[in-house]
From TrEMBL:
Species of the source: Ambrosiozyma monospora
Highest taxon, organism lineage: Eukaryota
EC number: 1.2.1.11
MF-aspect GO terms: aspartate-semialdehyde dehydrogenase activity; NAD binding; NADP binding; protein dimerization activity
UniProt catalytic activity: L-aspartate 4-semialdehyde + phosphate + NADP(+) = 4-phospho-L-aspartate + NADPH + H(+)
EC top class named in words: oxidoreductase
Coiled coil, from the record: none
Protein name from the UniProt record: Aspartate-semialdehyde dehydrogenase
Cited InterPro entries: ASADH-related, Asp-semialdehyde_DH_CS, Asp_semi-ald_DH_pep-lack, NAD(P)-bd_dom_sf, Semialdehyde_DH_NAD-bd, Semialdhyde_DH_dimer_dom
Length: 367
């Protein structure tokens, strides 16, 4: 019997002190395939052990694997031995830093918005459109065919509200065809606004704020890219521009977990029944689960029958935050259906998606 143990892949986290960065630390500390090797943040944090650089705000204790790692500046040379670098960088700085990392030959999986619109950059919710990683597979194949080593590349994670929205839509579109109309009204947690400086308590206590800068536009176009298809040559994504999407976004006094009230109309007539929609969501098994990825949810979509669910505090941890909860699925008198979806914004909406994407890249031998 073989006694050979598989060595873990070294990984780094940029923006390790932030809201998304802290979630990456929690998810990577005891990961079976990845070893947390490098942490990066701004020059304010660089040179300090992580436990001194970070203002830890998670409800789980800071993992010992991270506490004494010394934070560095976000320079690619510092991360040269990492197989994957996760980015939770402030978008103001992410563009230049991530570009430098890719040019250095590194694999970057990013939460920042900067490269999401690039046609040859996959925008991936790993429980929905993991097939878009074929763009990366094609880049790697072409380089290897020329006798070159694996090139640096970037994969983008979607906006957190978009992730919760498209997770149940993808199996529905695959089974019942494209959507004609999609509307969503979000109730977004304060952790989505980040930790530096963080959403002011006085603004959110006893309150709802009906504006999140840039969020509605991002949901409206990102859904079209994620629900779109790859061109035949697998080099770019063709957005689903035939679908009309409308989003309204609100910040609410919830720590973690974005809730969305969704309504939709399918392009094809007759529309499926409520029972067919529920069955489609319940039966869905995402590729990451089929491949046995370590963080993949057992159930990607949880269909809830209780009339007052999902609720963020009660449902956000389903499948470790990698599962999305859908409740109150019913006919809509204007469109075809309406339902409520809840997703953990820093797990399936951010860092968790990043980790699961890296597991998929590893399973597909693209690292
Ligand atoms: N929060 C969420 O739910 C989601 C966030 N995102 C995106 O993820 C990214 C991170 O968001 P979030 O964690 O909320 O943000 P935070 O404000 O909490 O964290 C920002 C991070 O960026 C670092 N940083 C700031 N300036 C620089 C710099 N000049 N050079 C290097 N590092 C720098 C900070 O380090 P330091 O502590 O040293 O200042 C910190 O680690 C953003 O692009 C955001 O839009 C995406 C989806 C969901
Ligand atoms: N805007 C989101 C979080 C976020 O930063 O999204 P994006 O990465 O798309 O900018 C929220 O407030 O909940």
């Amino acid at each position: 019997m073989s006694t050979k143990t598989q060595t873990k892949r070294k990984v780094g986290v940029l923006g390790a002190t932030g809201s998304v960065g802290q979630r990456f630390i929690l998810l990577l500390a005891n990961h079976p395939n990845f070893e947390l090797a490098k942490l990066g943040a701004s020059s304010r944090s660089a040179g300090k052990p992580y436990k001194k650089a970070v203002e830890w705000k998670q409800t789980s204790l800071m993992p010992s694997q991270a506490a004494d790692l010394v934070v560095t500046e976000c320079k690619p040379e510092e991360f040269a031995d990492c197989d994957v670098v996760f980015s939770g960088l402030d978008a103001e700085y992410a563009g230049a830093i991530e570009k430098a990392f890719v040019e250095f030959g590194l694999v970057v999986v990013s939460n920042a918005k900067n490269y999401r619109r690039e046609l040859d950059v996959p925008l991936v919710v790993p429980t929905a459109n993991s097939d878009h990683l074929d763009i990366v597979a094609e880049k790697v194949r072409l380089a290897k065919a020329k006798g070159e080593k694996r090139p640096g590349y970037i994969v983008c994670i979607s906006n957190c509200s978009t992730a919760g929205l498209v997770a149940p839509l993808k199996p529905l579109v695959d089974k019942f065809g494209p959507l004609e109309i999609l509307t969503t009204t979000t109730m977004q947690a304060i952790s989505g606004a980040g930790f530096s400086p963080g959403f002011p308590g006085i603004d959110i206590l006893d309150n709802v704020v009906p504006f999140i800068s840039g969020e509605e536009e991002k949901i409206e176009w990102e859904a079209k890219k994620i629900l779109g298809h790859l061109k035949n040559d697998k080099t770019t994504v063709l957005n689903d521009d035939s679908m009309k999407v409308s989003a309204q976004c609100n910040r609410v006094a919830v720590s973690d977990g974005h809730t969305e009230c969704v309504a939709l109309k399918f392009a094809k007539r007759p529309a499926p029944s409520v029972e067919e929609v529920k069955k489609c969501l319940r039966d869905y098994v995402c590729e990451a689960t089929q491949l046995g990825c370590a963080s993949a949810p057992k159930q990607a979509i949880h269909v809830l029958e209780e009339q007052n669910r999902p609720q963020p505090r009660l449902d956000r941890e389903r499948d470790g935050g990698f599962g999305v909860s859908v409740g109150r699925i019913r006919e809509d008198p204007v469109l075809d259906f309406k339902f409520v979806v809840l997703s953990h914004n820093t797990i399936i909406g951010a860092a968790g998606s990043g980790v699961l994407i890296a597991e998929l890249l590893d399973a597909k031998k693209l690292l």
